[in-house]
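debug: dumping io for the single-chain case to check the tokenizer round-trip. Nothing else runs in this session.
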Amino acid sequence: MREMLSLLWFEVKEEVGAVHWTVYQWAFFAFQYFVYGQLVSKLVVSVPNYYFYYGTGLLIIMTFNISTWAGRRFVEGAHEGRLRYILSLPLRRGEFFLEQVLMGLVVNVVRIGPPLVMILWITGAPALVLLTSMTVLLAMSAGIMGIMISLSFVAFKSFDIYSAIVAGMSAILIRFSTILYPLSYIPNAYANISRGNPLTYGADLLRSAVNIDVSGLLNPGLSAIVVLAVGVSTLTIGMALVPRVLEGVKSS
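debug: decoded output
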């Protein structure tokens, strides 16, 4: 456990020290929310409070992108030779997988925290909502990272194929969900697909926590169960799969 925490502290300092990437994330969110969000909210007049709805959708997208980056960083370590050095440390493979997930969660808090606080301040939400909202985002992040890191067996053979799979998953999961469109306003054919998308449950659960009043939100109890089940299942698969995949990994 001490070795895992030492490695976590080292990598967190390295990533948090990359201030330019954090500032870029915040600036990108501010532009999307205050400029593009204002324009889109003027067009989407049929959805009440769409400006705030869009803001929470941006938080989900940022969480998804950072979680995807954490998975990509994991497999890039093998091609750069970094992974071979880490595997030589007195660290169990399962602990290494857990350390990668925790590192991604810390980066998520740093980069998602300020935009979340800003939206809650604008909406006038009570301080307790910050804790529940961040919990929802981190639970989603853990599930996504579990998927991305578990796909490392593909990346170790072909990073191009891994990148194509991740890009395809990102396009499908984000667009066939309620991240940007309320379920009650989506055509039935797309709504049925969205109901099978875990991001739909995470997005609706976040909006329930923030108290955004949009008709057609899924039951928060059901959404919480789905988000928790996805996180637990993907992390369990990763804990079982990744230690076997890591054996014999060669750096390029």
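debug: round-trip ok. Residues 155 and 162 are 5 Å apart (CA to CA).
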